Structure formats: structure tokens, C-alpha cells
Amino acid sequence: MAHKRKKVVIVGGGTAGWLAAGILATRFESDGVGALQVTLIESPDVQTIGVGEGTWPSMRSTLQGMGISETDFIRECDVSLKQGSRFNNWVTGESDYYYHPYSLPSSYSDVNLAPHWQAVRDQVSFADAVSQQGKLCDHGLAPKQISTPEYAFGVNYGYHLDAAKFAQFLKNYCTNELGVGHVEAHVRSVSSMENGDIKAVVTDTDESYDAELFIDCTGFASVLIEKHYGISLNSIKQYLFNDSALATQVSYETEHDPIASHTLSTAQSSGWVWDIGLPTRRGVGYVYSRDHVSDAEAENELVQYLVPIVGRKAATEIDPRKLRFSPGYRQEFWHKNCVAIGLSAGFVEPLEATAIALVELSAKMVAEQFPENPAEMAIAANKFNQKFTYRWSKIVDFLKLHYVLNQQDDDGYWQQHRQIDTVPESLQESLTRWRSKAPWHLDTPYIDEMFPSASYQYVLYGMGFSTNVSELALRGRAQAQERANQLFHENIQRTKQLLSSMPRNREFIEKVHEFGLPKI
Amino acid sequence: MTNYVMLNNDEHKDLRINTSHSIEMGDGVNFAMTFPFEFRNAQAHYPIFFQKNTETGRFYPVALFGFEPNENLFLNDQGWGAAYIPAMIRRQPFLIGFQADESEPGTKKAVVTIDIDNPRVGKESGEAMFMDHGGTSEYLQEVTQNLELIHQAHEHSDNYISTLLENDLLEQFSLNIDLEDGSAHQLLGFYTINEERLQKLSAEVLASFNDQGFLMPSYMVLASHSCLRGLVDLKNQSLR
């Protein structure tokens, strides 16, 4: 009994399915907790969405944990390095910008630089005062050198990647190296046990696959969590209005054009345009609210965005893919012996590239909490649902933060985003406190928060928010001010040093293709 | 700046090469690339480590001459104070260059090039390269042999490094050096061979190391560690 192999069936391929498969297969491989037999059933007829092309720095440890060579990953998935996001025209809509970099402010664990920065806010942006990354991005430089070992960094980074190639790469790795079973078939029906657990899924080839745990990675189709179990979505449209997207790809003018090492996010009339630079192309798309702009008008705005980049002719010739979605997340992610991971669990605009990060976190938690016996199932499900409901509520707060402080001269979309009844209460409370206290560790009480309080600082102060620290709070802080000044000074020095030593992002990627990254 | 041109027995017939060693001659360097074929000779005098080429991230072996940039503790009034001088130092001011081979289109042939702006190159004194009637001097023949040796050694050295990496034998190390004057130095960015893992290689792998000429150099690297003591002594002497 103790040595019986536990079985997991994942329904659906794509980034979510294969990433979950890899994480589950590796976790149990290395722990020796008990071998887990992972089988992934993928429908040959279903196209993957494949628009999630930005990752968080967490992807580095995820890939490394699976035993994947970073060099192979970069070469095979059309990868470039991402150091954060640049938000253009979000504040006033007139040539303003700010960065949300991946690196934490200097000495973040023990010093809160935000109150000290308020005094010099007219001279230097918050991101530039506390981090080097905005400047590196401005200059198109990479976060590491070719001699830096795989997964190590000069400054923190994640990736931009080709989602289709990534899924294929993971599929090969999972099936060849990790012993994941792969079935190409369409799941037609589900057979249940008396207690409501899924006993097996049955394919259109009349094969039946039983397992202890089923993972729904079927994307918007949500075959198990919604169609079988009828778990509905909590809508978040009252906070985050975007429900449509137009996605396209454009070429570089020459193969030597710089590759941005950050995601560009540019505000439009009724949403924003993402612009993700891969080595061989840019992925560009407009995510917008259909209540505020028609598809045709949206396409025109996307074309206008592209004109300065690819020229009028190429811009007007695009044939963007249209996506519709209901922003929201499941009322339960883990129900009975079924867990939804990926788009089946929820979907929101990719403003902070949360989609793939949620897949990593979900799969890691399932791997860690994997129920060893039926009695553990409901407990694990509860823990998981609590954790991810909290995470989604924080995602809503954090994404809404990008919108609520806008000063756009507009009486539609942007004005509505400022209205108090479109702001979650938890965020309203935080904003009230942040008027007198800069975000700090108490704002993010858990050790595994998705967004550290530093992220709130970057967006808050990037959007021009003021924290008026009271005289009382400042009393006796002379020593802290001295330390802060020293850190500001060190950041200037370190920025200079990195600007002169880091290679251009494209040059770095070319070198990875030519020489590979050292393992040590 | 260097200025390499193809060596030519007409244009360069009057040039002479100063073969002495000094800072003025450009020997003020704290390390030089070395090759497995000369590890046996090099380890008698210099610690041998591995470091990364900053342009490619690839490893290569070096012989260490000092602890700071431009510090060569082996240079003294009499020249270079060690019986063996690494090939990459001795090659100066020459380098192998490549030129399209007219007899075989599409291929390249190796040619000797000379850095005519190198301080070693002059007309007054030193070794002549060409005889009065245009033939090559014994000195130039030695130079050419050394260059060929280096040229051939590159590929072997690259294979050697790849094999070390494949077998997980390289590891980073840092070394703190306390000097008599109370100052401390730290050697960073160097890698060496993990002795324990080398000893644990299977008989099969060891045999293949031996066949490819990788075994003896590996032990030479380990043996070279004892030269660090001598290097520290030289450094202390220079401070007195």
C-alpha cells in the first residue's frame, strides 16, 4: 500500500498543463516521497491560447528545479530576458512613464527608503533612486553577462518567451526526461465515484484514465471544474473592466534592432497595449473594455501604436487575433479531487504577467500538499482554496492600483477607474493608510505573497502618489536619514557600474546562442 | 594598441626582437593563458587556475604571476625569475593569423603575424628574424614552432575544459591572503579542480581521461596549488 504509485491525470496541454506536469513530476522524483505517475491528456484538435509570453523571476527557480538547462531554454523558446515593466502614459496620458522593476529597493529587508525619497521626489523617480534596473532598461542592457552562470544574475530577471515553443519544449522535456505519460486524445466524459470524486476521464478513443487527483488545464473550456463540477467564476469586472484583446506579432526592421528587456505597457483610450520583445519578433496586443470602445476602434488604436514601429503600410496590414474573456476567478479552485490550474482557474488582463506565475505557484502547492490519503483531500483543498482566493484578491488590488491613481483628462474609461465604487474596499483602506505611511512589510503579511510591498511602492510612486510622513513619525529619524542617503548614493554608483559593464540585451542573447551560459 | 601585420622577409628584414623580460617590454601582467601541454613545466613555478573569458563565458586555464592587475612578481632586475616561461608570454610579439589560401579556395592557412607597434620590435638590438639573404633565423624558427604548438593546443585545451565540466570537476574558490604588512588580498573569479571528485571518477572515465591526455594535466593543476606559497613569499619580499 505504502508503495503504490499515486496517479495524477492532467487534462490539457499548453503552458499550464506542461508546466504543472513538469513541476509535479520533478517534485516527487527528487523527494522520494513516493513516485508519482503523471499522465497528460492533450486534445489534438484544441489550439492553445498562447498569449502568455512574460514570466516572473520565479520561472528561473521553477526551470532549475526541473533540471532544465537555461541555455537550452533560451535557445529553443525564442527567449529574451525581462527585468520588469515600463508603464507609458498611464498617469496623464502625455509622455509620462515609470518602471516596475523586478529588483527590490536597496536593503529592502531592513530599510524603507520610500519615506526618505519623498524629499527628493522632484529630482529623481522612485525606481531610479532605489534600483538600477530602470536605467538598464532605458539603455537596452541585459541583467547579466555571458560569464554569469545559468540562472544567476547581476540584477533580478524573468523571461519573455514564445508560448507555443515553450509548451513544445516542456512537452519534450517532461516526456523524455521526467517520465510524464502523454496521451493525444479528446476527453469526452467523466466517470464519478459515489462521493463525487472523479474516478476516471474517458477519451474519444474509449480509453479510461483513473487517478487520485485530476488537474484541469483545459483553459477557457474548463472541462472539469466548470463543465463537470459547475463551479462558477467570481467576476472582477466591476474593478477591472478589460474583457477583450487584439493580439498580433510584428517583425523587427533588421535583425540587429535592440530587444527591450522589459515589457512595454502603453495606456490607450480604453485599456493598454502590451509590447513584448522576443529575439525574432515583437508580440503586441491591445487589451481593452468593450463597454468603452468597439473592436474596430480598438484595432485602429493598435494600428496607430504600431505605425511608428513598423511603418504605416505594415501597421495597417495586421490581422490581429481577437480574444474575449470574463475577468474573474473560480469560487473554488480545488473541488473534490480536481484542481484547476491556468486559465481554467481564472483570467485577468496580463498587466503584471500573473498568468504563468499563478501556474507555477499552483502546481508547486499541489506538489507540496499532495494528499497521501483520502482523508487529506478535503484539507488540502481547503488550504489551497484559501491561499488562492487570497492571492486573487491581492492581484485585483494590485492591478487596480495601476488604474485608480490616473490623472487622465477623460470622461469615460479612465474617469470610471477613479470612481470609488470601482475600487475594492481593501485597496481603499490601503490607499488611506498610504497617505501617511509608505507601504512596508506589514502590508504584505505572508512569506509567500505574490507582490512584495516594494511592488506597491513602485506603482504608487510611479503613478505620482504622495505619502506625507508626519513630523511626529520623522522625529528621531536623523540616523535613518543618514543611512538612506548612503543607500541612495550607493545606488547611483552601482547604476554607473552596471551601465558600463552590462552587455546589450540582444548581444547577450546572441552570445547565449553562440557560446551557451556556463553552468558554474 | 596592437597592430598585427603579416610577417614578410622583405619589409621586416631589418627588424630585431628584444627577448628580454621587463615591465617596459609589456610583461607586467598578473596572469597568462596556459595550456595542458605545458602544465608540467608551468606547475613547477606558477599556480594554475581556470577563469572565464568575459566575452564568451568559456573557461580557460591561466598561470598566475601576481595578486593584482599588472602585478608580475616574477619580474626583477635580471628579467623573469623562473626557469620556465609560459608559451603565451614567449610568443610575444607574434601571433598566428589566418589568410585565404589561394591554392585551395575556401580554406584558410595559418600565417605568422607580428605586432609592429610592440615595444619588443626595433632595429637597434635583439634577435634578427631573417638572414642576410632572406632565409629565416634560428630564432624565428623557434618562434614559429612555438606558435604552431599554441595553435594546436587550443583545441585540445577546449576539449579538456569541456570534459572537466561534463564530469562536474571544476569548482569556484576564493582565497584570502594575509600579507606581512597587515594588508589582505582576496583572489576572486578563479576556478580549480575538485580533488575529491577527480579521485572518485570511475575506472572507465579515468582511462578515457588518460587516453585523451587529460589525466596528467589535472594532477598538475592540483600540484600547482603549492606554488601559491611561493607567490605569497615573493609578494612579501616586494613589500619589505
Describe the protein's topology:
The complex is a heterodimer of chains A (520) and B (240).
Chain A lengths: L5 E6 L2 H18 L4 E7 L15 H8 L4 H7 L3 E3 L1 E5 L8 E5 L12 H4 L8 H5 L2 H6 L19 E3 L2 H15 L3 E4 L2 E6 L5 E6 L4 E3 L2 E4 L6 H6 L4 E3 L8 E7 L12 E6 L2 E7 L4 E7 L6 H16 L1 H5 L4 E4 L3 E3 L3 E2 L2 E3 L5 E2 L6 H15 L5 H31 L8 H6 L6 H10 L18 H10 L8 H4 L3 H24 L3 H11 L5
Parallel strand pairs in A: 1-2, 1-11, 2-7, 4-14, 11-20
Antiparallel strand pairs in A: 3-6, 4-5, 8-9, 9-10, 12-18, 13-16, 13-17, 14-15, 15-16, 18-21, 19-20
Helix pairs in contact in A: 1-7, 1-11, 11-12
Chain B lengths: L3 E3 L9 E2 L5 H5 L3 E3 L5 H4 L5 E5 L6 E6 L10 E2 L2 E2 L6 H4 L3 E7 L7 E8 L5 E2 L4 E2 L9 H29 L3 E9 L5 E10 L1 H5 L3 H9 L3 H10 L2 H13 L1
What does this structure look like?
- The complex is a heterodimer of chains A (520) and B (240).
- Helix content of chain A is 39%, strand content 18%.
- Chain A is built from 18 helices and 21 strands.
- Chain A has a 7-stranded mixed β-sheet with strand order 5-4-14-15-16-13-17. Chain A has a 6-stranded mixed β-sheet with strand order 7-2-1-11-20-19. In chain A, strands 8-9-10 form a 3-stranded antiparallel β-sheet.
- Chain B has 240 residues and is of the alpha+beta class.
- Helices cover 33% and strands 25% of the residues of chain B.
- Chain B has helices at 23-27, 39-42, 87-90, 138-166, 195-199, 203-211, 215-224, 227-239; strands spanning 4-6, 16-17, 31-33, 48-52, 59-64, 75-76, 79-80, 94-100, 108-115, 121-122, 127-128, 170-178, 184-193.
- In chain B, a hairpin with a 2-residue loop joins β6 (75-76) and β7 (79-80).
- Chain B starts with a strand and ends with a helix.
- Classes of the chains: A alpha+beta (520), B alpha+beta (240).
- The interface between A and B is medium-sized, with 12 and 13 residues.
